[in-house]
Design a protein that fits this description.
single chain, alpha+beta, 469 residues
Length: 469
């Protein structure tokens, strides 16, 4: 596993060298063989537990990254990796660099008094959710391994500990730029922006202010794409703080996330989101707000005249809504297999969503049924029959193929995730996990085993999720 150092030359105290803390009895609980092959990770099986627990990293100059963050709207100027160590970057089979990071690997200079550890449940959740999201075709960080530490993590109540090995095309966050901007470090900002462009947007070749305006434009485009995909499958992130917003446009931080069963734009699962700031339907506005915070951080790279810089950046931020609304319309057209665009399509979609919410219909199963109905393989809920008479006139011979690519049959449902977590906490393994992964790896295809994972429990309405820190 050849590692390339990263970030240490951006600015002082941006990437602080720090070593993971050894654990007592590492045990490999999950190993992503396909991902290991993609990155040619040649760690011998017997060494994997200790290596990916952080016990063998003494020769690696790992770092903890600094970043700021607007957390539920409140700005914290110094957050950083309080329980994670970035080992470096590795090349995948396409020679693209990805960061490799241990999460739950012990306290760092950014821990603010915390223990820097991760409980087993959140570690398993991150592995299952990120891999399910990848299979759904949604940009995401990936998980290589979960290692049990053999130590208790002192939460309430105490829980078994674990370390997650996470891969990301980078860990450059909106909060990373805020961190340097807060310190007035224009040179560090430029270095970070240039690194992000080189890593994610090499097509940007302009110089001067235009270079960083193009960077913001590209970030916005990827954020729009990400949120559209979240909403396409009913994903609720739960903690869309600026420190959890990657400029690459990948999903990061699977702490309080969950999947929507019954359709409702106001769906909230996070136990700490009392005001619904990050509700399912608020995610576009929050992504736009986060991008505006990135724009503020880029002001020193645009002009010494702040008023002029703001005038140049404002139209780029305003374009978020226009771009999102266009793609949002396209998304619903694909989910319903609408032929072309026609006046009245928005009313058709709006009427369907009103019916879904009024009758508490399952989001995933309803669109799956509509998809198969087009192909003559299913019936639709009786509540939608009258609406469907109008909808059918807007479908075509290509509708099934379009809808099948947009509408998954399987998602990582909340009760499935909770059962898997409970089995790992009790037994250190999960029989359900192996069955689920087999089906979830191909979420758009029919499987003889999928019925078990399409069931919707009647007691899931008050489901709550937690950050796990």
């Amino acid at each position: 596993m050849k590692l390339v150092p990263r970030y240490t030359d951006i600015a002082d105290n941006f990437a602080i060298e720090d070593q993971p803390s050894s654990v007592a009895a590492p045990q490999l609980l999950l190993w992503n063989e396909a991902l290991a092959k993609q990155f040619n990770i040649g760690v011998e099986p017997q060494l994997r537990p200790s290596t990916f627990a952080g016990n063998e990293s003494q020769q690696i100059k790992s770092v903890a990254l600094g970043y700021s963050g607007h957390q539920f709207g409140h700005f914290s100027p110094r957050l950083g990796d309080g329980r994670a160590h970035l080992l470096g970057a590795i090349n995948d089979d396409k020679n693209q660099l990805w960061d490799i990071q241990l999460k739950g690997s012990g306290a760092t200079p950014y821990s603010r008094g915390g223990d820097g550890r991760c409980a087993l449940g959140p570690a398993i959740r991150e592995y299952v959710m990120s891999e399910a999201m990848h299979a759904l075709g949604i940009p995401t960080t990936r998980c290589l391994a979960v290692v049990g530490t053999g130590e208790a993590v002192y939460r309430n109540p105490p829980q078994p500990g674990a370390v997650v090995t996470r891969l990301a095309s980078s860990h450059i966050r909106v909060g990373s730029f805020q961190y340097l901007a807060t310190q007035g470090d224009a040179e560090g900002l430029k270095k970070l922006a240039d690194l992000a462009i080189k890593r994610h947007y090499p097509e940007i070749t302009s110089e001067g202010p235009e270079r960083y305006i193009a960077f913001l434009t590209a970030v916005i485009s990827n954020q729009v794409n990400l949120i559209i995909n979240w909403m396409r499958v009913g994903f609720v992130h739960g903690v869309m703080n600026t420190d959890n917003t990657l400029v690459s446009g990948e999903t990061i931080d699977y702490g309080p996330c969950a999947m929507m069963d019954s359709f409702d734009f106001d769906t909230v699962f996070s136990s700490i989101d009392k005001q619904g700031r990050y509700a399912f339907g608020n995610q576009p506005n929050m992504a736009s707000w986060n991008c505006a915070r990135l724009a503020e951080s880029l002001i020193p790279l645009i002009s010494d005249d702040e008023e002029k810089a703001v005038s140049l950046l404002t139209p780029v931020i305003h374009h978020f809504s226009e771009q999102f609304n266009t793609q949002f319309t396209v998304m619903w057209s694909k989910k319903l297999g609408l032929a072309g665009a026609k006046e009245g399509d928005k009313d058709l979609v709006s009427e369907l969503l009103t019916l879904l919410q009024a009758h508490h219909l399952d989001y995933t199963n309803t669109f799956d049924a509509l998809t198969e109905f087009v192909n003559g393989n299913a019936t639709i809920p009786k509540e939608l029959i009258e609406w469907a008479n109008k909808w059918q006139s807007r479908t075509s011979n290509d509708s099934y193929k379009t809808m099948r690519a947009a509408n998954p049959r399987i998602i990582p449902r909340n009760h499935i995730i909770e059962t898997i977590l409970a089995e790992y906490n009790e037994l250190g393994s999960s029989k359900l996990m192996s069955r689920f992964v087999k089906v979830a790896n191909k979420p758009y295809l029919f499987s003889d085993d999928m019925a078990e994972f399409q069931e919707v429990p009647s007691n899931d309405t008050d489901y709550k999720t937690f950050c796990g820190t």
